[in-house]
Every structure is written in C-alpha cells, then in structure tokens.
Amino acid sequence: MKLLVTGGAGYVGSVCAAHLIDAGHDVVVLDDLSTGHRDAVPDGAHFVEGDIADIAGDVLAEGFDGVLHFAAKSLVGESVQKPELYWNGNVVKTLRLLDAMVARGIPRLVFSSTAATYGEPEQVPIREDAPTQPTNPYGASKLAIDNAIGSYARAHGLAAVSLRYFNVAGAHGRIGERHVVETHLIPLVLQVAAGQRPQAQIFGDDWPTPDGTCIRDYIHIDDLAVAHLLALTYAQPGEHAIYNLGSGTGFSVREVVEACRTVTGHPIPVEIGPRRAGDPAVLVASSAAATDALGWRAEKTDLNTIVGDAWSFMRLREPV
Ligand code: UFG
Questions:
Q1: Annotated catalytic residue, options 118, 138, 152, 243
Q2: Which one of 35, 51, 153, 301 is most buried, by most CB atoms within 10 A?
Q3: What's 126's DSSP letter?
Q4: Where are the alpha helices (DSSP H) in the chain?
Q5: Is the CB of 279 under 6 A from ligand 1?
Q6: Kind of pairing, strands 240-245 and 200-203?
Q7: Would you say the CB of residue 184 lies under 6 angstroms from ligand 1?
Q8: Is 165 a catalytic residue?
Q9: Protein residue with its CA nearest to atom 5 in ligand 1
C-alpha cells in the first residue's frame, strides 16, 4: 500500500514506518520536526517536512491507500499547563487532516490514541468499554479525536482504527525514545546508569499496591508497530474500531528500576519523592479485543527484554 505516516520522525511513528517499509509498503513521512528527529525517519521512506494542517491536503493529492496518524503533542504535564497546544495541535490539526482525507478519497486511517482517554480506571484490566473520563487535556484531546474519527467513518465511509497505547517502551535497533524533555520512567532510570543523572526518582511509595509504587503495563514498541500493520488490513469502510494495546501484565516502578539494575549492572540509586499529580495507582490493559479482531498479542513481554532494548539504543547513541 502507499501510506502517509504523519509524525514519522517521532518515537512511535518512526518505528511503525520502519515496520511498514520492511513489510513492503511505500511510505511517505510527514513531520514538522517540532519534537521528532530527521535522522529517525527510516531509510526507504520519502520525507516531507511540514505541518499536517497546512500541507496534508497537497501531499495526499498524490493518492494514498491510507494514513497512519501519529503527529501529536503527548506530554500530560504540558497539556495541563498549556491546553491550547493540545486542543489546537491535536484536535484542530487532526480535523484538517480528516477533511483532507475525505476530500482526496483516502480510504483508511490508523490513529495513535492512548490509555489516557480512560482516566482513573474503575476496573483493571481496562477494556475498551470502560468509561472514558480523561484526567488531563492530553487524554481529552485524544478522546475528542477518537469521537471525530467515529463520526467521519460513519458519514464518509472511512475505514478507521484507533489504537490506545499503554506504556510504550523499548527500541527498534537504532530507533528509540529520544525526547528533548524526557518524562518517561524507563529512559529516565537508564540515564542514571548512563551517568547522565545522579539518581532516579520514584513518585510516591505509598500507593495501594504490593510494593507501594505505581503499576503500569509496558508494551514493546515492536509489538505496538505490528498491531498497526494488522489494523491497516483489518479496517472496514464506514467503521471505527478501537483497541487497547498492552501486554496485560503490570510492573511496579520498583520492578522497573530493578530490571534496569539487572540489565545495566549499575546500582542506580533512587530517591522517594512525592506522588505525581494525576497518576493513577494501576493501569493495565485488557488487549483481548485486539487479540480477537486482529489476531494480535504482545510477544516481547519480558521486562528485561524491553529495558534491554532501550538500553542498547541508548548506548548506540551515547556509549558508556
Ligand atoms: N515515574 C516515577 N519516576 C519518574 C518518572 C515516572 O516514579 O521519574 C512513575 C510515574 O509516576 C508512573 C510510572 O513511573 O507511575 C510511569 O510513568 P511514565 O511517565 O513513564 O508514564 P505514564 O504512565 O505517566 O504515561 C503513559 C504515557 C502517556 C499516557 C499514559 C496513559 O506516557 O502518554 O501512560 O495513562 F497518557
């Protein structure tokens, strides 16, 4: 298929683009490089620098079989401080993209959604029919887009799938997580082992969990990418499907730190800090629906494998 990958210079978009190319698809990456990296765009992709709201229509005029839409703002804390970046950058720009897709008759969309659409869960593992009560503008903006996609699909015959990611981690060879402002647990803890920080911080050890630290569902970036390829072929005209993507297993912050110690051989000192505002105690996905519909299940579920791939990527860039 000929596919447009928006945000294909970012972490998730670039790895998915690499998987698409490996599977024989013809890939055009559109990215404004506001947070992505030009050198993360995989070999074999045609790169167009620009803003989806301005030029997606022109790019799509070439004719495409589908769009995978990753371009977005994705920091929970920033979304609370600067909600306008999220409502404009995520919602308004995606509406322009959807309009361009309809105008150009592009039949398929796979959208990068998030577990943050659910907010504080009432039940764990979280299924797709759980209430959607996002606790921050980031999650609310992604939920608004999911809703818009549903109505565009029904009205205009678009074949659409939203994939709601839990905690994406790991790396795909030379492509990995490289945020200018890093907020995610695994890269921050590995930065201690790499000598870039004196210690890791644990945001609270008084949560109602077995070891007192928050539990999350870490999904390997390669497993996540595979689900996108399956969703592309599964999508049905006029329908919008939504699937959670996680490994189904929760690991505590302390277990993640321990895995980082095992993988790196570094003692990684930790400091217990206060709880971070807005953190739920436990987030674990039920991916049963994705397994039933797409035949997908996470394969790289071993925490040491996930952390090990993130560590190999970090050492490739900055050997220690
Ligand atoms: N944490 C620490 N110390 C740190 C960083 C994180 O203890 O230095 C803890 C957090 O409190 C949380 C866990 O580690 O309990 C994971 O935190 P991350 O920031 O790595 O990830 P989140 O679970 O906050 O966020 C992820 C995605 C978001 C998405 C959210 C869905 O990164 O994009 O899941 O709930 F919105």
A1: 138
A2: 153
A3: B
A4: 11-22, 52-60, 76-81, 83-86, 93-104, 137-156, 185-193, 221-234, 253-264, 288-294, 303-317
A5: yes
A6: unpaired
A7: yes
A8: no
A9: 185
Instruction: Tell me the CA distances in angstroms from 182 to 29, 75, 86, 188, one per residue in order.
Output: 24, 9, 18, 7
CA-based R_g, the chain, Å: 19
What does DSSP assign to residue 92? I
Residue nearest atom 27 in ligand 1 by C-alpha distance: 167
Contact 194, 205 (CB under 8 A): no
- Taking the C-alpha atoms of residue 69 and residue 93, their distance in angstroms, rounded to an integer, is 11
The residue nearest atom 6 of ligand 1, judged by CA position, is 185
Any atom of ligand 1 within 6 Å of the Cβ of 203: yes
Residue count of the chain: 320
Give pTM, 2 decimals: 0.97
Q: Give me the tens of pLDDT residue by residue for the chain, a chain 320 residues long.
A: 999 999 999 999 999 999 999 999 999 999 999 999 999 999 999 999 999 999 999 999 999 999 999 999 999 889 999 999 999 999 999 999 999 999 999 999 999 999 999 998 999 999 999 999 999 999 999 999 999 999 999 999 999 999 999 999 999 999 999 888 899 999 999 999 999 999 999 999 999 999 999 999 999 999 999 999 999 999 999 999 999 999 999 999 999 999 999 999 999 999 999 999 888 999 999 999 999 999 999 999 999 999 999 999 999 877 65
Count each helix (H run) and each strand (E run) in the chain, helices first.
Answer: 11, 14
